[in-house]
Amino acid sequence: MMKFKSPPVNSLSLEFLTEFSISLEKLENNRACRGVIITSTLPKIFSSGLDITEMCGKSVEHYTEFWRAVQEMWLRLYGSNMVTVAAVNGSSPAGGCLVAMSCDYRIMAENPKFSIGLNEAQLGIVAPFWFKDTFVNVVGHRIAERSLQLGSLHPAPEAHKLGLVDELVPEEKLMEKAAAVMAQWLALPDHARQLTKTMMRKAVLDRLVAHREEDIKNFVTFVSKESIQKSLRMYMEMLKKRKS
Amino acid sequence: MMKFKSPPVNSLSLEFLTEFSISLEKLENNRACRGVIITSTLPKIFSSGLDITEMCGKSVEHYTEFWRAVQEMWLRLYGSNMVTVAAVNGSSPAGGCLVAMSCDYRIMAENPKFSIGLNEAQLGIVAPFWFKDTFVNVVGHRIAERSLQLGSLHPAPEAHKLGLVDELVPEEKLMEKAAAVMAQWLALPDHARQLTKTMMRKAVLDRLVAHREEDIKNFVTFVSKESIQKSLRMYMEMLKKRKS
Amino acid sequence: MMKFKSPPVNSLSLEFLTEFSISLEKLENNRACRGVIITSTLPKIFSSGLDITEMCGKSVEHYTEFWRAVQEMWLRLYGSNMVTVAAVNGSSPAGGCLVAMSCDYRIMAENPKFSIGLNEAQLGIVAPFWFKDTFVNVVGHRIAERSLQLGSLHPAPEAHKLGLVDELVPEEKLMEKAAAVMAQWLALPDHARQLTKTMMRKAVLDRLVAHREEDIKNFVTFVSKESIQKSLRMYMEMLKKRKS
C-alpha cells in the first residue's frame, strides 16, 4: 500500500512526484509486490493535484524539470504491471484525478462533499492531451468533452454515475473494500493480466512517449505567459484567502 | 441567439446553409458574441435536415455546390470557438440532428412526439463519415452502429437515455434553461475552454478537411445514380401526400 | 437461421469453424438470404468458445491452420452483409462471446445462470487484439479494460446492464423475439444498411487483415510455450473433473 502524506493537501510538487516515481519503480522491480493501493493519510483530500507553486515565478529550467516529472509519474503509473487500486478518501481535482484515473480500479468514499474531476479549465489552463486521453478511456468522448470544457468537479455520487469512479463505499469501509478488490484482481494470473492491460493502454502511453519533448515545450511556453502567470497568482491568492 | 425560421420545416437548402454559415462567421468574428443558442421559430420542428429538393433532378454542379455548403456549415459549427447550445424545440431528423450534435450542449423539449436521429438509412442513403464521426463522439460506437443501421428516429425520452441529448425540459421552460446553460458555460475563461474544445474535436474536423473533395465526389456520384434519384422522388411523393 | 449443434458444448473446433465459414459464405452468396439468426440447439450453452483440444499438444502446422480458421470465421461474420442476430440461449464464454458480439444484435435468455464474456485472462491467456477491438466497439474502452483484465463472465442481467447484450427475454420467447428483431432490420433497404455497417466496422476488420500473418505467428508462438500448454492441460483436467 502507498499512502500519500504530504500536508497540507498532497499537492504534487516536484519532490513529491520524484519520490512517487521512485517508489513505483522500486515496487515494480520487487517481484514480491504484485499490487498497490493508493490512498491518502490526510483528512478530506486524496490529492489536490499539481503544485501550483511549481508553475509560478520559476525558471524555464524548473518548469521543464517539473513537467518531465509529471510525465514520468503518469507513464509509470498508467503503464504499471502491478494491480493499482485508488482508494479515493477525499477530494481529487486535476492531477489528483489523473492519479486516480491511471489506476486499474477506483473506489471512492461516498461523501458528496468529496469531488473529483479535471478542473483545469476553471483555472484558465488546458489539460494536456494525455490527461484527456486517459479521461476519454475512462468515461468516453462525450462526458470527457463536456466535463473538460466546464472544468467540472464531480461530487462522488455524480462521479460514480458517470463512470469516473467504479464504486462508492462508506468512508469507514474504504480500505477494507480496496483490499477485497485487490485480492480479486490478484487472483488472476499476472502474465495474462499484464499483457491485457498493456494491450488496452499502449496506444495512449505511446502517444505521450512519441511527443514527450513537444509536450514539455508546450507546457513551458504556456506557463511562461504573463497572462497565465497572472491567472495562477490570482488563484493562489484565492486559495490563501479561503484558508484563512 | 440564432433562430431558424425557414418555413415550413427549416429544411437545410443551399440558401439556408449559406446564410447559416455567413451568420456563424459574423458572430465568430464579433468579439462581443461569445455564445449562440440555436433554436427554431417553427412549431414542432427544429430542422427537417437537408433539403431533398436540392438533391433531386439537379446538375452535377448544383450537387457539388450544395454539398460544399453542407460541409462548410458543419466545419464552422462543430469547430466554433463560441459556446453553442441547441434548444431543440421540435423534431430533428438527419441534418437537423447533425446541427444539434455539433453544438456543445443539447436541451430538448420533453415531448415524446419530438424525435431526433440520423435516419438516412430509412431513405436508402448512407450518412457521410463525418456525420457518423460526430454521432460516435456523442453516443459512442455501439449506439451509433445500431442507430445508423436502423436509421432510428429516437423520441425525446429515448434520445436522452442514449445521451444524444443532454437534458429534457418542459417545452415552455426550454429557452429559460438554454439561457441558464449558456451562462454556466460563459462563466469559464474563453481561451482555456476554446483550446479544450479544439483538443476534443480536432481529429474529426481534420478528417473531413483532409478528405473534403473526395467526400464531395462521393456524394455527387451517389446522388446522381438513377436508383437513388428514384428513392428520393418516392420519398418526396410520400411527404407531399402526408401533408395533404 | 443457423443453429449451432456440436455436442456437447458447441466448442469451436477446426472442423466446426470451417463448416461455419462455408455456411456463411454460401448464405452470403445466396441473394434470397438477407439475414441469419444464430442460436444453439444444445441446452444451457450457446457456444463454449474455441476448442482447447485444438491448442493442446498439436503441431505448429495445426495451430496455424486452426488460428487461420478462427480469423476467417470472424472476418466473415463481423463483415457480413447480412443482418446477423444472435439468440444467445445459454452461456457464451470467450470465442462464444466473440460470435455473439460480431452479430448486429444480441438477445439473451434472461436466466442469470447463463453468462457471457471474454474470460481468456482466467485461463492465463490473452484475448487477441481483434477480440478486444470488437469488445471495445460494443461496450466501450473502460468496461472492456476491466472485464478483459479480470476475465469476467457476466451473468445475463449484468451483461445487459453493461451493453454486452442488447436485450433480455424469457427463454421461451427468445426465438420469437429474434424473428421480430430480424423483421425490423430487414425492413431497411439492404444497400444503405450494408454500407452503413461497413462504415462502422471497416477500421477494425482492416486491422486484422493488415496484421493477419503476424497475428497467426503470435498465436502459434504463444500457444507453443510450455507454460501455456501446462495451463491449458490443467484447465482441461478441471473441466473433465467438473463433468464427472
From TrEMBL, chains A, B, C:
It holds the Pfam family ECH_1. Its EC number is 5.3.3.8. One of its GO terms (biological process) is fatty acid beta-oxidation. GO terms for cellular component: mitochondrial matrix. It is found in: Mitochondrion matrix. Keywords: Acetylation, Fatty acid metabolism, Isomerase, Lipid metabolism, Mitochondrion, Transit peptide. Key enzyme of fatty acid beta-oxidation. Able to isomerize both 3-cis (3Z) and 3-trans (3E) double bonds into the 2-trans (2E) form in a range of enoyl-CoA species, with a preference for (3Z)-enoyl-CoAs over (3E)-enoyl-CoAs. The catalytic efficiency of this enzyme is not affected by the fatty acyl chain length. Homotrimer. PANTHER family: ENOYL-COA DELTA ISOMERASE 1, MITOCHONDRIAL, ENOYL-COA HYDRATASE-RELATED. This is Enoyl-CoA delta isomerase 1, mitochondrial.
